[in-house]
Amino acid sequence: MTNQTTPETTPETTPETIGYFGQFGGSFVPEPIQKLLDELEETFNRYKDDPEFLAEYHAYLKDYAGRETPLYYAESLTNYLGGAKIYLKREDLNHLGSHKLNNVLGQILLAKRMGKTRVIAETGAGQHGVATAAAAARFGMKCDIYMGAVDVERQKLNVFRMEMMGATVHAVETGTATLKNAVDAAFGAWMNDLDAFYVLGSAVGPHPYPTIVHEFQKVISVESRRQILEKEGRLPDAVIACVGGGSNAIGAFSQYVDDESVKLIGVEATGKGLDTHQHAATMEKGRIGVVDGMKTYSLFNEDGSVAEVYSISAGLDYPGVGPEHAFFKDSGRAEYTGATDDEAVKALLLLSKTEGIIPAIESSHALAEVIKRAPTMRKDQIIIVNVSGRGDKDVASIKDYLQEHPELA
Ligand SMILES: *Cc1c(COP(=O)(O)O)cnc(C)c1O
């Protein structure tokens, strides 16, 4: 997709109109793609409140993905930290081990309505690729997944999982051979086959994707709101989630946005530290520009090209961020902070040791913020932290990390 700091084209819409969150969002794509996005928007609007569509979507969430996911009171972690009561929203218990399937199921059911027979997706660590491959297998669609060659090497097990489910995984050798290049390659493949459906994995990209992804991930907070009211009879004081592109966070925040008393906190990866160049702190260090078809905060090099970013967690090392989060940052509705590699690994180990739950390294960034914040809060206050995924995929890299950093073990 076009990556530059100044828009190449002016969208038909003006800020504050459809497809925008304040000044953020929009759609900056070539004409043939814009046509497809218009078609997708029309399909989405037709089905998003359609009882039959929703019944099918919720049936798959229940019987295929395994929802609803529990809201678990982490009593042992709470006692250890000695402050606010901590509840975990267990997205790690979804089929395939993360929140990604919520969105993929919604998009694939739209693709089915549109008569599509082939899906294309990009993937970084492979979690979105695995979810897309699974849903494509279920609905008998041809599936092409684009993944940087470096990530293919780093995430061999996920590549094999996708292939077992019938997907073709394309290793992208251009540039740094990571997610950024995979996005460009997947987009190129779409340009070459406009009949294919692009399954987008986070709350990013051109309109209507951020809106669609929000809609299909909001189930996280629809459930957690009902669950916390059942368990505590009141709303939480804070909801905390990690932010890569921002899909698990937008789903975790969605149903609390109008409740002023609920603090919403997004946690980005500050990698090896904000004073290094090895981080993915888009909100903290980025500036406004156009990346992957949307206007948002992003990390750029001095020459205006999109920066290489870094995090121990492959799911968080994305240079941009969803436009709704950019808007929440500027409006002050949500607060964005960061956690380093070290802090995330410590948090992963603490949850494993206190609760017997090994979280994904991505989710561990949110848990690192809980460790900082809970002890400063009263015992009658409540935090909900979104555990976006399980950590099985990270065990080998955590083992390596601890060998290099024995002081953390
Ligand atoms: C992909 C992924 C993320 C990051 O993506 P968001 O769109 O920001 O949610 C976070 N956690 C897990 C477990 C993931 O797989």
TrEMBL record:
Cofactor(s) recorded in Swiss-Prot or TrEMBL: pyridoxal 5'-phosphate
One GO CC term on file: cytoplasm
Pfam family for this entry, one: PALP
Residues that bear N6-(pyridoxal phosphate)lysine: K100
PROSITE patterns found in the cross-reference section: TRP_SYNTHASE_BETA
Domain named Tryptophan synthase beta chain-like PALP: residues: 65-389
UniProt keywords, alphabetically: Amino-acid biosynthesis, Aromatic amino acid biosynthesis, Lyase, Pyridoxal phosphate, Tryptophan biosynthesis
EC number: 4.2.1.20
InterPro entries: Trp_synth_b_CS, Trp_synth_beta, Trp_synth_beta/beta-like, TrpB-like_PALP, TrpB-like_PALP_sf
Gene3D superfamilies according to UniProt: 3.40.50.1100
Record text on subunit structure and interactions: Tetramer of two alpha and two beta chains.
Protein name, UniProt field: Tryptophan synthase beta chain
